[in-house]
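Incident log, support desk, overnight shift.

02:14 A customer reports that sequence design results differ from what the structure should imply. Their input is reproduced verbatim below. On-call engineer (initials T.W.) acknowledged and began investigating.
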């Protein structure tokens, strides 16, 4: 060993570590809070010195030391005197050729090195360094979010399904009859593979987030909630302070946008079939020479529309039953559930003679059974009180739930039935008088009556017009009772016609079709009246009202086509069924209420303290 090694060497360590120079390295990853302890220098004999001299240093190192020098490193996370393990960091050359050293050739040399290291360890055990038992200071670490993505196995499964799962919006699941999990199971059974959950499906909603929890709820709002969240004569406009459970910036699925009020189209067209059947066969309009083929064409169109709309809405019942349930709880939409059965009654009344000259009696009972079930439910709610009592939910669309009684009575009397038609006529007349008085009073509790005129007011004309014809069939003549109902209908019709300018400025709605059949009913009733009172005025009246009803239906048909094929907004998002179950208060309002409650409690404490201070001691 050279002179430098003999002068500074304190103890023998393995030759490779002994030749490493690390004192010039910055930030060496070693913590040694105590000063290095120099072990006693072992006594070496001549043989040991000779053996150590055989070890040649590295050619690439310029300074040689007999021990590894560890720099001082005071960590702020460790106390003074805290001893830790001392790892050694060695920088190796880039290739094995950089080493030019000879390892010990004999096993005795290796044994001697182990003996020296054990002697050094024994000395350190006899003279341990002083330790200070101080508690390390508390250190706070703040974690940062790690950007993540879709795992590879999930991405592969998603791509195998064509990305359908990633494009699926879970916000529509609460309106579906089948949940999202069941839908994925059916897809798997159909051979679509095992679908993967999307990131939106895997994340758990915060239970404290009112909006998120509401969007996954499937509880239908009560009647009062519809009044609080919606406005307009049909309760189809959302108030500015409300939110929807469905995205308002996207186009919803077609079935969700298909309302029950679409059956109003069947009411309008099928009533026209009855009108032209009456014109073609009644004596007062025989001079018009209208062919019965017009009735056949309109009846076929009505039947086709009825089948299409019924099939589409049946799909909505199957796949989006929650949306149908919300329509049923809607105070205005619930009346349109009578529309499909009334339309079927119209089809039976307007059947062309070439198709069927007589109808079986069971058909009338089959069509009136659903009407009875709906009336028992709706009329019972009107009478029993609560949130659905008539004084709160009365609106012109309630005439749809009443007019079905008169249409059924008219059809049954035309088929030769006696007791059944009379029963429905009595039920319809009783509830019509109550509804008529309630709507005329405009009670302060009624919130659905519009302040301005609206096409929905034409439903006032429907019930008395059909009632006059029904009583004429039941009694066998267009007598006093039928004339009284007919004159009431004509007066209401005239009161609306003279204010036709007030009906401008309303946005088109598909439910307007339901407001056309009252005009058609008034024209048919005028033809029946002109049969009894035959003069020029009555003939002109029946022709004029029939022509006005036809023009109205034609204009409405053209408007419907324009919105369907030009504007493509015939079925917009049905806001009426997408309101929240409860009103969601803004965060600022919640904080304000919290501050008010705190200030109120502080004020009470101050007031109590002041009272106790000024109270005389007993």
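02:41 Re-run completed on a clean worker. Output:
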């Amino acid at each position: 060993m050279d002179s430098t090694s003999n002068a500074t060497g304190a103890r023998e360590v393995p030759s490779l570590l002994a030749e490493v120079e690390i004192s010039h390295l910055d930030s060496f990853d070693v913590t040694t809070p105590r000063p290095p302890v120099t072990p006693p220098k072992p006594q070496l004999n001549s043989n040991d010195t000779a053996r150590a001299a055989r070890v040649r240093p590295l050619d690439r190192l310029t300074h040689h030391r007999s021990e590894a020098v560890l720099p001082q490193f005071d960590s702020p996370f460790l106390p003074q005197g805290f001893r830790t393990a001392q790892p050694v960091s060695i920088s190796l050359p880039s290739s094995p050729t950089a080493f030019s050293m000879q390892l010990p050739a004999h096993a005795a040399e290796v044994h001697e090195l182990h003996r020296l290291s054990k002697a050094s360890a024994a000395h350190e055990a006899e003279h341990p360094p002083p330790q200070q038992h101080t508690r390390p200071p508390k250190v706070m670490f703040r974690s940062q979010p790690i950007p993540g993505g879709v795992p590879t196995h999930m991405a592969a499964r998603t791509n195998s399904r064509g990305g359908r799962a990633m494009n699926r919006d879970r916000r529509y699941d609460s309106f579906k009859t089948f949940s999202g999990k069941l839908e994925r199971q059916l897809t798997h059974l159909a051979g679509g593979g095992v679908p993967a959950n999307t990131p939106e499906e895997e994340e758990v909603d915060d239970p404290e987030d009112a909006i998120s929890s509401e969007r996954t709820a499937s509880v239908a709002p009560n009647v009062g909630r519809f009044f609080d969240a919606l406005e307009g004569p049909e309760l189809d406009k959302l108030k500015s302070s409300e939110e929807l459970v469905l995205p308002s910036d996207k186009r919803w699925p077609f079935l969700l946008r298909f309302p029950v009020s679409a059956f109003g189209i069947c009411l309008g067209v099928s009533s026209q079939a009855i009108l032209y059947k009456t014109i073609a066969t009644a004596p007062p309009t025989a001079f018009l020479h209208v062919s019965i083929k017009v009735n056949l064409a309109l009846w076929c169109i009505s039947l086709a529309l009825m089948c299409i709309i019924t099939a589409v809405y049946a799909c909505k019942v199957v796949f989006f039953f929650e949306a149908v349930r919300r329509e049923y709880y809607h105070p205005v939409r619930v009346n349109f559930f009578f529309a499909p059965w009334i339309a079927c009654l119209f089809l039976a009344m307007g059947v062309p003679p070439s198709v069927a000259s007589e109808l079986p009696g069971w058909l009338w009972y089959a069509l009136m059974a659903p009407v009875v079930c709906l009336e028992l439910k709706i009329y019972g709610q009107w009478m029993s009180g609560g949130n659905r009592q008539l004084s709160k939910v009365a609106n012109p669309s309630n005439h749809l739930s009443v007019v079905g009684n008169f249409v059924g009575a008219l059809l049954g009397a035309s088929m030769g039935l006696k007791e059944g038609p009379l029963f429905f006529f009595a039920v319809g007349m009783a509830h019509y008088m109550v509804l008529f008085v309630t709507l005329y009073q405009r009670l302060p509790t009624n919130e659905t009556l519009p302040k301005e005129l609206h096409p929905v007011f034409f439903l006032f004309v429907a019930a008395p017009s059909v009632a006059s014809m029904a009583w004429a069939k039941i009694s066998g003549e267009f007598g006093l009772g039928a004339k009284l109902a007919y004159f009431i209908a004509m007066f209401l019709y005239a009161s609306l016609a003279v204010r036709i300018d007030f009906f401008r400025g309303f946005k088109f709605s598909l439910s307007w079709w339901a407001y056309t059949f009252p005009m058609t009913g008034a024209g048919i009733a005028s033809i029946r009246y002109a049969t009894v009172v035959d003069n020029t005025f009555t003939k002109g009246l029946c022709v004029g009202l029939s022509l006005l009803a036809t023009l109205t239906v034609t204009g409405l048909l053209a408007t419907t086509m324009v919105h369907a094929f030009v504007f493509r907004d015939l079925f917009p998002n049905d806001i009426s069924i997408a309101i929240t179950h409860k009103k969601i208060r803004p965060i600022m309002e919640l904080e304000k209420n919290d501050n008010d409650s705190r200030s109120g409690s502080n004020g009470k404490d101050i007031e109590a303290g002041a009272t106790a201070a000024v109270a005389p001691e007993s």
